[in-house]
Amino acid sequence: MIKFINETTEYLQSKGFDKPEIGIILGTGLGQLVNELEILQEVSYNHIPNFPTATVEFHKGKLIYGILEGKKVMIMQGRFHIYEGYTLQDVTYPVRIMEKLGIHTLLVSNASGAINLDFKKGELMLIDDHINLQGSSPLAFKGVEQLGERFTDMSAPYDAEINSKFEKIAAAHHITLHKGVYASVVGPQLETRAEYRMLKTLGADAVGMSTVPEIIVANHLKLRVAAVSVLTDECDPSNLKPVNISEIIAMAEKAEPDMIVLFKELIRML
């Protein structure tokens, strides 16, 4: 993997990706952030050596490098999921590349379902902790110790100082920002009523199919990390309705302006 990482890094450096400070993974609800960026360089995933091969869903996936609020940022426009058939090493490979290029902070967004019924769809949740229910670890491979500490500490995977800044920004802009625990499952199917009850018993406030692998690797690489979820649906096992994809997309779009304010203001403060 070290050989692959070096090849990918050298390629991106040759394309002008010059010492980015902050990495951003754009999930549902933050796609328009690129419109706020002074784009300096962008490269499609399928042109990058050793990068995961994009599926149909992400055939437009790009790495974008530019200036946002005076900081050099590197953005993943389109992420990878294990439910698409990728390995956990594939899913997290871009995080290793961003760190090798120079980032010190990783910011992540995603869409999730609200397990905590005090949280409503269209609102945001700051991730304070997580539960990994994906069945494995992105660090579970031979030679991982050559890239960082094998037994990575996860007592505080999300940066408390960054989370505090997020909360202050939300308060100043009158944005509802809950704080809670995110459970990450494999997917792609949604959960049953019994699974939602289980997740609530485990202490999850929201559930999704991404983010946790990237957070684990970011901690392995000793990056500062923060993540925000767009709550796109309410997962009430006593009143569960069939999934309405168009409504989920609408909820993500509703929350997007608030998400962009949070991320732009935070980056300006870092």
TrEMBL record:
Key word Glycosyltransferase present in the record?
yes
GO cellular component entries = cytoplasm
Q: Which InterPro entries match?
A: Nucleoside_phosphorylase_d (IPR000845), Nucleoside_phosphorylase_sf (IPR035994), Pur_Nuc_Pase_Ino/Guo-sp (IPR011270), Purine_phosphorylase (IPR011268)
Q: Give the pathway listed in the UniProt entry for this protein.
A: Purine metabolism; purine nucleoside salvage
Molecular-function annotations in GO: purine-nucleoside phosphorylase activity
User: Sorted alphabetically, which Pfam families does this protein's record hold?
Assistant: PNP_UDP_1
- Name assigned to this protein: Purine nucleoside phosphorylase
The organism of origin for this protein: Gelidibacter algens
The organism's lineage? Bacteria, Pseudomonadati, Bacteroidota, Flavobacteriia, Flavobacteriales
